[in-house]
Write a structure and sequence with these properties.
The protein is an alpha+beta fold and 458 residues long. It has a domain at 39-89 and 125-304 and 340-381: Outer membrane efflux proteins (OEP), CATH 1.20.1600.10. It is built from eleven helices and four strands; from the N terminus they run αααββαααααβαβαα. Strands 1-2-3-4 form a four-stranded antiparallel beta sheet. α3 (65-86) runs antiparallel to α4, α4 (128-195) runs antiparallel to α5 (200-234) and α5 runs parallel beside α11 (419-454).
Length: 458
């Protein structure tokens, strides 16, 4: 009975030790998760106030799903680097077993307990650890560059959504002004009909124009609501969150001065800036190096690995039964092992061939990247130049349409022009105002896209 109690006491202590070890592991895992979560930015922006473009970008970089995943990918890759570095250290492990049987003959007890401690260290692997560590670092570098590309892409999307909100806000204002003018014309036409100066058909014409203006206003209001829902979605917020944005200073300056900021560089200069700054080049270079290391590691799999092994074991059951000198019930061993693949049916050879062809594909894609970037910059540059010219033309159209409307309005007031002429002049002026808004924000988006193509969007 005493012998059985001793066994249970030892098992209880072992269970308590395992429980403490499990708690320590859980605390460590929680600490790691907490530390990773602590890396998240915590800057808060008051959403009840009008947001500038910079504030929208700040919120998006903190809260958007793409950036959160990018930060997690970076943390994962950093852990992989640490894992690859850990291969340089020995591995220490414990083992224990409990056997229960109905056999009691030949000197065997029905219950047996064994504990052991072992260690293994790779003495020589022909550079496989170095290759794995170098590959992990190149993958980390590629992830950093990829995250920079994700960041610039998100900034581009947020900027476009921000300008969409401002564009449709301006279009709604223009539509409201046009509708107000159309309603005044309709009422004036009715007054002229009552006075006998116009016929009822003129009222119908005025009401048709007024109805068209109502539809235009409704369409612009609907587009504004969609734009206001898309912006918080890109910021990582609920689309139902009500966000107001600050008026763009460049648009106010354009309205006052009638001029815009123009690009002051050639296509060749823009392309060179892109070649120096686009994160895709750094990412591609790191990916190529990582794939080269993958090929090297696959070739090194053919070489042997030399390991050192150490084991220390204790027969707990015999020690508890005999209660003699502890050294009689422990044992240890040390040795080295050499592992070498003699035959695998061609698996390693096929793996090397596959990685060689994948590396060739990656190099071909890398050689085409420069041409793709140059084309992207050229298209963005030309689109911006076209947008700049369109802004100038739209400004001239607004001035001319305003002058024409003033002349026809004066003639109509003294019965020198018919109603149809006045309505046509008002329609032309309304269209000119709409074109001016559209072309200006198209120019702002084209400007942003060129900055993105050059890799300088911040």
């Amino acid at each position: 009975m005493i012998h059985r109690k001793i066994k249970f006491t030892v098992l209880s202590k072992l269970a308590d030790s395992q429980s403490l070890l499990l708690k320590a592991i859980l605390i460590f895992q929680f600490t790691v998760i907490f530390c990773v979560g602590a890396q998240e930015p915590t800057t808060e922006v008051d959403l009840t106030q009008s947001l500038t473009l910079e504030q929208c970008v700040q919120i998006g970089l903190e809260k958007s799903t793409n950036m959160r995943n990018a930060r997690l990918n970076l943390a994962i890759q950093e852990l992989r680097v640490k894992t690859a570095r850990a291969d340089y250290f020995p591995r220490i492990f414990t083992n224990g077993n409990y056997d229960f049987s109905d056999r009691v003959d030949f000197g065997f007890e029905p219950e047996n307990y064994n504990l052991g401690l072992g260690a293994q260290y790779t003495i020589w692997d022909n550079g496989q650890r170095e290759g794995g560590f170098a590959q992990a670092k190149e993958s980390l570098s590629a992830t950093v560059s990829r995250n920079e590309g994700i960041k610039q892409s998100l900034i581009l999307q947020i900027t476009e959504a921000y300008y969409d909100v401002l564009q449709f806000q301006a279009l709604v204002e223009v539509s409201e002004q046009n509708l107000e003018r159309a309603q005044e014309n309709t009422q004036r036409t009715k007054d002229f009909v009552e006075a006998g100066s116009l016929i009822p058909a003129d009222v119908a014409t005025a009401e048709v124009r007024e109805g068209n203006n109502i539809l235009t206003l409704l369409n612009n209001q609907n587009s504004l609501q969609v734009a206001k829902a898309r912006l918080p979605r890109l910021l990582g917020l609920d689309p139902g969150v009500l966000i107001t944005v600050t008026e763009d200073e460049s648009y106010q300056l354009y309205q006052q001065r009638g001029t815009i900021e123009r690009i002051e560089m050639s296509i060749e200069e823009a392309i060179q800036i892109a070649l120096d700054n686009r994160p895709e080049f750094t990412e591609t270079e790191a990916q190529l190096k990582s794939q080269e290391w993958s090929l090297t590691l696959a070739k090194l799999q053919r070489w042997p690995r030399l390991n050192a092994d150490v084991d220390y074991n204790v027969n707990v059951d015999d020690y508890l039964r005999e209660r003699e000198n502890f050294s009689d019930f422990r044992s240890w061993s040390a040795g080295v092992s050499l592992n070498f693949t003699l035959f695998d049916g061609g698996i390693l050879g096929n793996r090397v061939k596959e990685l060689t062809m994948q590396l060739e594909q990656a190099r071909e894609n890398a050689s085409d990247l420069e041409r793709s970037v140059a084309l992207d910059v050229r298209q963005s540059y030309l689109n911006l130049k076209r947008s700049e010219a369109s802004v100038d033309i739209s400004k001239t159209q607004v001035v001319n349409a305003r002058l024409s409307l003033d002349v026809i309005q004066g003639r109509f007031d003294v019965d020198k022009a018919i109603l149809l002429e006045l309505l046509d002049a008002q329609t032309n002026y309304a269209q000119a105002l709409t074109n001016e808004v559209n072309t200006f924000y198209a120019y702002k988006i084209a400007q942003t896209r060129l900055q993105d193509a050059m890799g300088v969007l911040q």
